[in-house]
């Protein structure tokens, strides 16, 4: 894993991150695809930064929006992860701040909750919280001179870094925003002569005209130019469906919103996979991992390690040469840093080497980092998650105790088990005082075992444990 740590200075690396960074790159006043809002799901995403502990080396710093549960911190320490983390929340108490998307591309400013509206706002980034509230954590973490390693480069990093003396070297934010658009991915596919490039449309009339042409060949996808995995994508299967979606977008266009979507032919896939690599400031590329992906409704569900036969298939298709070509295009356009390329193996046996570019870290890179830890003990794991509904009667400490009592909790000497990767995401939607209602939470975990049948048994036992303790599994 490339490190920003300076061997000469020995400065610690500060791991922070805002997931769904696309929301913070998104330009204001853009039309959106129809979708049902899910505030509890949004809030779970704000607690995913706890996953970044997997990147920590001895002496590193982890700063999260919600402080890691003390029981989870003790558990990670028992596993051998040696890092400093905040013990109080960076997020102001019981305040769900929201930032108008119009501010995402602009200069830092104080955002107040009453400024928000559902369709044009999103939770503020952890870097905005650091900029505005970080002084309260100054005594907890030695931020000055730490080298920043974020999940993605987003607004407020520059302002927060200057305020607290953090070293953050990165490409210009405008470059980061550009290379993360679906339009840019389509352009790179055209430059490299790759099949199935998307078509960028900027009006409802154009969307309908191109959509009708694509429907003559089969079904197709409409993708928001700044869409995130599982959101901002719609699979169009009929002219009637196209007309309904176009009608919604046309209403927004009539109110002055700009139209920016990419239309892509829907491909019959056998499986999703992704490649993670890093581009240095000098333009060199380091391939870090390849991961199989199990997606649900186009959203991330699970990462798995590919077998040797699949890696041989990629070599035969010169897949990694294509990754190097993509990295050169990115570097020539001013980007360096972490990249995740979404790819597909199609049902006809061919490869779709690049579905889209994600110029940031990724869930699969986190899985690879956990794998690196497990390999030290001769082990391997698969990363997955459970979305649950619960009333918070089971604390995270009690969950760990239950896993331990049931002989499910992973420790290296056991050689297998359930390795919980997060704590805050499970309880983030629970009110400070019990309200008698159930709220959504999510547990991210690694299933550590080399045997498929053992994996299924571990997951079955975990599901039984969750159910017996009043947690209803939703996914």
Give an overview of the whole structure.
The structure is a single chain. With 475 residues, this protein is of the alpha+beta class. The chain folds into 4 domains: 13-170, no CATH class; 197-265, ATP-grasp fold, A domain (Dna Ligase, domain 1, 2-Layer Sandwich), CATH 3.30.1490.20; 269-359, D-amino Acid Aminotransferase, Chain A, domain 1; 364-473, 2-Layer Sandwich (Alpha-Beta Plaits). The protein is 32% helix and 23% strand. The protein has 15 helices and 19 strands. The chain has helices at 22-25, 39-46, 70-79, 126-133, 157-164, 173-179, 182-191, 204-215, 239-254, 308-316, 319-332, 363-375, 396-405, 424-427, 452-468; strands spanning 13-16, 60-62, 83-85, 98-100, 121-123, 147-150, 199-201, 220-224, 233-236, 261-265, 269-279, 285-296, 299-304, 337-346, 351-358, 381-390, 417-420, 439-448, 472-473. Strands 11, 12, 13, 14, 15, 16, 17, 18 and 19 form a 9-stranded antiparallel sheet that branches. Strands 3-2-1-6 form a 4-stranded parallel sheet, with no helix packed on it. A hairpin with a 4-residue loop joins strand 14 (337-346) and strand 15. Helix 4 runs parallel beside helix 5 (157-164) and helix 8 runs antiparallel to helix 9 (239-254). The longest helix is centred in the last third of the chain and has 17 residues, at 452-468.
Essential attributes:
475 residues; alpha+beta; Dna Ligase, domain 1; D-amino Acid Aminotransferase, Chain A, domain 1; 4 domains; nine-stranded antiparallel beta sheet; 15 helices; 19 strands; 32% helix; globular
């Amino acid at each position: 894993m490339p490190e920003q740590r300076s061997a000469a200075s020995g400065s610690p690396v500060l791991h922070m991150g805002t997931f769904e960074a696309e929301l913070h790159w998104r330009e204001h006043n853009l039309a959106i695809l129809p979708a049902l809002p899910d505030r509890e799901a949004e809030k779970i995403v704000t607690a995913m930064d706890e996953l970044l502990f997997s990147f920590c080396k001895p002496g590193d710093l982890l700063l999260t929006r919600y402080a890691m549960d003390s029981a989870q911190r003790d558990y990670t320490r028992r596993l051998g992860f040696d890092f400093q983390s905040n013990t109080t929340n960076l997020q102001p108490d019981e305040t769900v701040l929201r930032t108008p998307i119009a501010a995402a591309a602009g200069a830092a400013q104080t955002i107040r909750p009453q400024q928000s509206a559902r369709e044009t706002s999103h939770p503020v980034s952890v870097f905005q919280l650091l900029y505005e509230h970080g002084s309260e954590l100054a005594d907890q973490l030695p931020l000055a001179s730490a080298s920043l390693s974020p999940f993605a480069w987003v607004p407020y990093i520059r302002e927060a870094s200057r305020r607290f003396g953090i070293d953050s070297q990165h490409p210009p934010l405008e470059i980061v925003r550009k290379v993360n658009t679906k339009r840019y991915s389509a352009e790179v596919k055209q430059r490299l002569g790759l099949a199935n490039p998307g078509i960028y449309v900027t009006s409802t009339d154009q969307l309908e005209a191109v959509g009708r042409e694509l429907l003559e060949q089969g079904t197709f996808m409409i993708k928001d130019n700044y869409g995130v995995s599982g959101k901002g994508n719609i699979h169009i299967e009929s002219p009637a469906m196209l007309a309904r979606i176009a009608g919604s977008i046309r209403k927004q266009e009539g109110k002055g919103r700009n139209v920016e979507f990419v239309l892509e032919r829907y491909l019959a896939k056998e499986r999703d996979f992704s490649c993670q690599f890093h581009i240095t400031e000098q333009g060199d590329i380091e391939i870090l991992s390849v991961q199989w992906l199990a997606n649900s409704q186009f959203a991330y569900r699970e990462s798995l390690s590919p077998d040797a036969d699949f890696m041989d298939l990629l070599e035969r298709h010169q897949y990694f040469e294509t990754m190097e070509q993509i990295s050169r295009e990115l570097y020539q356009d001013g980007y360096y840093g972490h990249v995740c390329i979404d790819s597909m193996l199609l049902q006809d046996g061919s490869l779709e080497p690049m579905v889209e570019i994600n110029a940031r870290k990724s869930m699969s890179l986190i899985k690879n980092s956990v794998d690196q830890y497990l390999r030290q003990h001769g082990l391997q794991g698969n990363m997955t998650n459970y979305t649950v509904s619960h009333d918070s009667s089971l604390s995270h400490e009690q969950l760990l105790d239950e896993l331990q009592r049931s002989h499910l909790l992973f420790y290296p000497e056991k050689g297998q088990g359930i390795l919980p990767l997060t704590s805050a995401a499970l309880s983030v939607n629970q009110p400070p005082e019990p309200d008698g209602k159930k709220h959504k939470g999510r547990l991210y975990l690694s299933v550590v075992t080399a045997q498929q049948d053992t994996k299924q048994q571990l997951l079955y036992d975990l599901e039984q444990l969750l159910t017996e303790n009043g947690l209803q599994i939703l996914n």
